[in-house]
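Progress report, Aim 2. The chain analyzed during this reporting quarter is listed below.
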Amino acid sequence: MSFLGIDIGTTGCKAVIFNKTGDILAEEYAEHSLIHPKPGWVELDPNLIFFNIKNIVKKALQKLSNNKLNNDKVKALAISCQGEAVIPVNKEGNTLYNAIVTFDSRTQEQYEFWKKGLGGKIVFEITGMPINPMYSINKIMWLKKYRKDIFKETAKFLCFEDFIQMKLGVTPKISYSLAARTSAFDIVRKEWSKEILAEANISIDLLSTPAPSAEPIGEINSAIAEEVGLPEGVVIATGGHDQACGAFGAGIINESVAMNAAGTSDVITVMLNKPYINETMLKNNYPCAPYVIPDKYTALTFNLTGGLLLKWFRDNFCYEEIQLAQKEGKNVYKIIDGKMYDKPVDVFILPHFVGSGTPTLDANSKGIIIGLDIETNKSKLSRAVLESNAYDLKLNLEKIESMGIKINNLIAIGGGAKSPVWLQIKANVLNKPIKILKNSEAASLGAALLAGISIGEYRNFVEAVEYAVKPENEFVPHLDMVNEYEKRYDIYKSIYSTNKYLLHKISRLST
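Predicted structure tokens for the chain:
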């Protein structure tokens, strides 16, 4: 018996088949391109993504059938996906418009509507989301105002989880953790907020039914099953927002352990035993949402340029490393790590290259490189990239811990978890042990475990984690380095506040 976890990200989708103990039996990945119809607009073609999902599921199943030792039948599936992206469909289930994704910039007007109307405090107390242009409710309101033709034909506004469920042949339900990312969901009552929807003038009938994660909602359509090679009767279960699924797949089942997902962004997900809807959370722009585990919640902190900043450094400074990687068939980031300066550097990078993440969430901030001298070289700059991202994580963790949530250690997932150099820097800067897992596909695993729970293959959420999540290595803080980084962190903390006026002045030059 095996379970299928489907993970839909901003730039690609993944299908991974796991056995009960969390071993990967087969996996496939497909990229999808972002669409930019106008400057600042960012969309995805949902039909292309469904096509890609069918294709990668089919290929993964073919791999599974070719492996005589692990030819386990898939019994259930669930979906982990990006938040905020919203798709209008008609009553026949056909898409009417592309998915408007998270960082699309067209909804500033709707953001101002909430700011001047109900206000940030009331919206946060209901939805757990600090007001921001990104959330789905704003995208729906934009379509209602500026694409009346589409709004008139829309039967449902779906996120990617419930959209793919529908395309697989079941009446869709949206998981609580993903529904929260719309900023129209009451996270305490766990239902669509009548107050928010009334203020937005959006009918509740246009949204999917919310449900807890790991709830079985139906069986895959037999024609789709035959097309991709799944057996009939595969159960489709509710999954969750990718950060919640990733945290579950990383084994986060108590408050003292946090997940660090280092991908394009550098995210920390903390599990909470109750909803934290307080002044500290709101002031620091930390969203609070239901977790995939019943009656538990999550808080998110994020730096928008984790892997993105490293990619920027690679593309602009590492021509020789790229050529060497291509010539020798090596990972370019491992080559960069191998050439990196081996001590803490006195060069600091404010990683606000696409604006700041939490706690400031300042779209008008810019990046800064400070501390350059004649001895600064590429090896020092590469270390500054990793160190400064780690300082930003520490800034957020300190604010989370100020609410009485003590984080003893972290579990790292994502591309950044493959760099021992970066993990050791993070352990030293944060002064906390960081574990990595045998299986780095945490979001897909989290979705697969929810699928397994839905059909009773695990008795509960804790048992699922005990069966399937396996630590592989741990990076512990080196005390001599901890002291060195404490001195430098004090400098990092003041860079944004000292330069905010100039950063905003620079931002205005391009408007």
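The chain is about 40% helix and 20% strand. Residues 479-509 form the longest helix (31 residues). These observations will guide the mutagenesis work planned for the next reporting period.
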